[in-house]
Design a protein that fits this description.
Strands 2-3-6-7-9 form a five-stranded mixed beta barrel. Strands 4-5 form a two-stranded antiparallel ribbon. The chain has six helices and nine strands, in the order βαβαβββαβαβαββα. The chain has a single domain, classed as fumarase (Alpha-Beta Barrel), CATH 3.20.130.10. It is of the alpha/beta class. The termini are far apart. The radius of gyration is 19 Å and the shape is globular.
Protein backbone atom coordinates (compact mmCIF):
# COMPACT_ATOMS: atom_id res chain seq x y z
CA UNK A 1 0.00 0.00 0.00
CA UNK A 2 1.42 3.34 -1.11
CA UNK A 3 0.29 6.92 -0.61
CA UNK A 4 -0.21 9.48 -3.38
CA UNK A 5 -1.13 13.16 -3.30
CA UNK A 6 -2.93 14.32 -6.44
CA UNK A 7 -3.88 17.83 -7.49
CA UNK A 8 -6.37 18.55 -10.24
CA UNK A 9 -6.10 18.64 -13.17
CA UNK A 10 -4.90 15.04 -13.12
CA UNK A 11 -3.46 13.43 -16.25
CA UNK A 12 -3.38 9.77 -17.26
CA UNK A 13 0.35 9.82 -16.61
CA UNK A 14 -0.19 11.08 -13.05
CA UNK A 15 -2.15 7.95 -12.12
CA UNK A 16 -0.54 5.35 -14.40
CA UNK A 17 1.40 3.72 -11.55
CA UNK A 18 -1.36 3.85 -8.93
CA UNK A 19 -2.83 0.45 -8.10
CA UNK A 20 -5.77 -0.95 -6.17
CA UNK A 21 -5.25 -0.71 -2.42
CA UNK A 22 -3.13 2.43 -2.69
CA UNK A 23 -4.16 5.54 -0.75
CA UNK A 24 -4.86 8.90 -2.41
CA UNK A 25 -5.28 12.39 -0.97
CA UNK A 26 -6.84 14.94 -3.29
CA UNK A 27 -6.39 18.67 -3.73
CA UNK A 28 -8.27 20.83 -6.22
CA UNK A 29 -11.73 20.48 -7.74
CA UNK A 30 -14.19 17.83 -6.54
CA UNK A 31 -17.76 17.96 -7.90
CA UNK A 32 -20.64 16.13 -6.23
CA UNK A 33 -22.42 14.17 -8.94
CA UNK A 34 -24.82 11.30 -8.37
CA UNK A 35 -27.85 9.49 -9.82
CA UNK A 36 -29.86 12.11 -11.65
CA UNK A 37 -26.86 13.96 -13.05
CA UNK A 38 -25.52 10.70 -14.48
CA UNK A 39 -28.92 9.95 -15.97
CA UNK A 40 -29.14 13.39 -17.58
CA UNK A 41 -25.74 12.98 -19.22
CA UNK A 42 -26.09 9.37 -20.33
CA UNK A 43 -29.80 8.85 -20.97
CA UNK A 44 -30.90 12.36 -21.88
CA UNK A 45 -27.73 13.35 -23.73
CA UNK A 46 -27.26 16.61 -21.84
CA UNK A 47 -23.85 18.19 -21.40
CA UNK A 48 -22.67 18.41 -17.83
CA UNK A 49 -22.72 22.13 -16.97
CA UNK A 50 -19.46 21.74 -15.04
CA UNK A 51 -16.16 20.88 -16.70
CA UNK A 52 -14.88 17.75 -14.92
CA UNK A 53 -12.32 16.72 -17.52
CA UNK A 54 -9.16 15.62 -15.67
CA UNK A 55 -10.90 16.44 -12.41
CA UNK A 56 -12.83 14.47 -9.77
CA UNK A 57 -16.47 13.72 -9.01
CA UNK A 58 -17.95 12.50 -5.75
CA UNK A 59 -20.99 10.23 -5.50
CA UNK A 60 -22.61 12.11 -2.62
CA UNK A 61 -25.72 13.96 -1.51
CA UNK A 62 -24.30 16.63 0.78
CA UNK A 63 -25.87 18.96 3.31
CA UNK A 64 -25.11 22.55 2.33
CA UNK A 65 -25.94 25.79 4.14
CA UNK A 66 -26.65 28.89 2.09
CA UNK A 67 -25.00 31.97 3.54
CA UNK A 68 -25.24 35.68 2.91
CA UNK A 69 -24.16 37.11 -0.44
CA UNK A 70 -25.05 33.91 -2.24
CA UNK A 71 -22.21 31.82 -0.83
CA UNK A 72 -22.46 28.30 0.54
CA UNK A 73 -20.94 26.27 3.36
CA UNK A 74 -20.47 22.52 3.23
CA UNK A 75 -21.87 20.97 6.40
CA UNK A 76 -21.72 17.26 5.64
CA UNK A 77 -20.56 15.39 2.54
CA UNK A 78 -20.55 11.64 3.02
CA UNK A 79 -20.26 9.38 -0.04
CA UNK A 80 -23.28 7.49 -1.34
CA UNK A 81 -23.26 3.96 -2.74
CA UNK A 82 -21.34 4.02 -6.01
CA UNK A 83 -22.98 0.88 -7.41
CA UNK A 84 -26.11 2.91 -8.11
CA UNK A 85 -24.15 4.70 -10.85
CA UNK A 86 -22.66 1.50 -12.29
CA UNK A 87 -24.92 1.30 -15.36
CA UNK A 88 -23.98 4.87 -16.31
CA UNK A 89 -20.34 5.17 -15.30
CA UNK A 90 -18.48 3.85 -18.36
CA UNK A 91 -20.34 6.15 -20.74
CA UNK A 92 -20.18 9.01 -18.23
CA UNK A 93 -16.38 8.73 -18.12
CA UNK A 94 -16.23 8.67 -21.91
CA UNK A 95 -18.45 11.75 -22.31
CA UNK A 96 -17.02 13.92 -19.53
CA UNK A 97 -13.35 12.95 -19.34
CA UNK A 98 -13.53 12.70 -15.56
CA UNK A 99 -10.34 11.23 -14.13
CA UNK A 100 -11.22 10.38 -10.52
CA UNK A 101 -14.51 8.94 -9.29
CA UNK A 102 -14.99 8.92 -5.52
CA UNK A 103 -17.74 7.07 -3.71
CA UNK A 104 -18.71 4.34 -1.27
CA UNK A 105 -18.38 0.62 -1.90
CA UNK A 106 -17.30 -1.15 -5.05
CA UNK A 107 -18.35 -0.88 -8.68
CA UNK A 108 -18.63 -3.45 -11.43
CA UNK A 109 -17.53 -4.48 -14.90
CA UNK A 110 -18.72 -1.31 -16.66
CA UNK A 111 -16.66 0.95 -14.45
CA UNK A 112 -13.70 -1.41 -14.74
CA UNK A 113 -13.90 -1.09 -18.53
CA UNK A 114 -14.27 2.69 -18.36
CA UNK A 115 -11.30 3.11 -16.03
CA UNK A 116 -9.13 0.86 -18.19
CA UNK A 117 -10.11 2.39 -21.54
CA UNK A 118 -10.10 6.05 -20.51
CA UNK A 119 -7.48 5.88 -17.74
CA UNK A 120 -9.49 6.79 -14.67
CA UNK A 121 -9.66 5.62 -11.06
CA UNK A 122 -12.50 4.71 -8.76
CA UNK A 123 -11.71 5.52 -5.13
CA UNK A 124 -13.55 4.79 -1.91
CA UNK A 125 -13.95 7.26 0.94
CA UNK A 126 -14.40 5.58 4.36
CA UNK A 127 -18.04 5.66 5.43
CA UNK A 128 -19.15 7.46 8.57
CA UNK A 129 -16.90 10.49 8.12
CA UNK A 130 -19.24 12.95 6.39
CA UNK A 131 -18.64 15.85 8.77
CA UNK A 132 -14.88 15.31 8.74
CA UNK A 133 -14.95 15.23 4.94
CA UNK A 134 -16.78 18.57 4.90
CA UNK A 135 -13.88 20.10 6.82
CA UNK A 136 -11.66 19.34 3.82
CA UNK A 137 -13.87 21.50 1.59
CA UNK A 138 -12.16 24.88 1.60
CA UNK A 139 -15.00 26.52 -0.31
CA UNK A 140 -17.89 25.87 -2.67
CA UNK A 141 -17.16 27.79 -5.85
CA UNK A 142 -20.23 26.96 -7.92
CA UNK A 143 -23.57 25.13 -7.92
CA UNK A 144 -25.29 23.82 -11.05
CA UNK A 145 -28.58 21.99 -11.71
CA UNK A 146 -29.99 23.34 -8.45
CA UNK A 147 -33.45 22.43 -9.76
CA UNK A 148 -32.61 18.86 -8.72
CA UNK A 149 -32.57 19.77 -5.03
CA UNK A 150 -29.70 19.86 -2.56
CA UNK A 151 -28.61 16.18 -2.71
CA UNK A 152 -28.47 16.05 -6.52
CA UNK A 153 -27.08 19.53 -7.22
CA UNK A 154 -23.63 19.66 -8.79
CA UNK A 155 -21.68 21.30 -5.96
CA UNK A 156 -18.27 22.38 -7.22
CA UNK A 157 -15.87 22.18 -4.30
CA UNK A 158 -12.31 23.26 -3.79
CA UNK A 159 -10.76 20.67 -1.49
CA UNK A 160 -7.43 20.11 0.20
CA UNK A 161 -6.04 16.85 1.60
CA UNK A 162 -9.37 15.19 0.85
CA UNK A 163 -8.97 11.59 1.95
CA UNK A 164 -7.85 9.00 2.69
CA UNK A 165 -9.26 7.54 -0.51
CA UNK A 166 -8.67 3.84 -1.18
CA UNK A 167 -8.18 2.93 -4.85
CA UNK A 168 -10.79 0.29 -5.67
CA UNK A 169 -10.41 0.24 -9.49
CA UNK A 170 -7.18 1.23 -11.22
CA UNK A 171 -6.26 2.12 -14.81
CA UNK A 172 -5.61 -1.53 -15.62
CA UNK A 173 -9.18 -2.40 -14.70
CA UNK A 174 -8.18 -4.25 -11.53
CA UNK A 175 -11.01 -4.30 -9.01
CA UNK A 176 -10.11 -4.48 -5.30
CA UNK A 177 -13.61 -5.46 -4.17
CA UNK A 178 -13.93 -8.27 -6.72
CA UNK A 179 -10.48 -9.61 -5.91
CA UNK A 180 -11.30 -9.52 -2.21
CA UNK A 181 -14.55 -11.43 -2.84
CA UNK A 182 -12.57 -14.27 -4.42
CA UNK A 183 -10.16 -14.40 -1.49
CA UNK A 184 -12.90 -14.14 1.13
CA UNK A 185 -14.93 -16.91 -0.53
CA UNK A 186 -11.88 -19.17 -0.45
CA UNK A 187 -11.49 -18.51 3.26
CA UNK A 188 -15.21 -19.05 3.81
CA UNK A 189 -15.14 -22.48 2.17
CA UNK A 190 -12.16 -23.52 4.30
CA UNK A 191 -13.93 -22.36 7.45
CA UNK A 192 -17.13 -24.18 6.51
CA UNK A 193 -15.15 -27.36 5.96
CA UNK A 194 -13.38 -26.95 9.30
CA UNK A 195 -16.63 -26.26 11.18
CA UNK A 196 -18.34 -29.27 9.60
CA UNK A 197 -15.53 -31.48 10.85
CA UNK A 198 -15.89 -30.06 14.36
CA UNK A 199 -19.65 -30.56 14.53
CA UNK A 200 -19.83 -33.78 12.56
CA UNK A 201 -21.14 -35.58 15.65
CA UNK A 202 -24.42 -33.65 15.43
CA UNK A 203 -27.18 -35.73 13.80
Amino acid sequence: MREFHLKTPVSAEDIADIRIGDIVYLEGILVTCRDVAHRRVVEEGLDLPVDVRDKAILHAGPIVKEQEAGTYQMISVGPTTSMRMEKFEEEFIAKTGVRLIVGKGGMGAGTEAGCKKYKALHLVYPAGNAVYAAEKVERIIDAQWKDLGMPETLWVNEVKEYGPLVVSIDTLGNNLFEQNKIEFNKRKELEIERICQEVGFIK
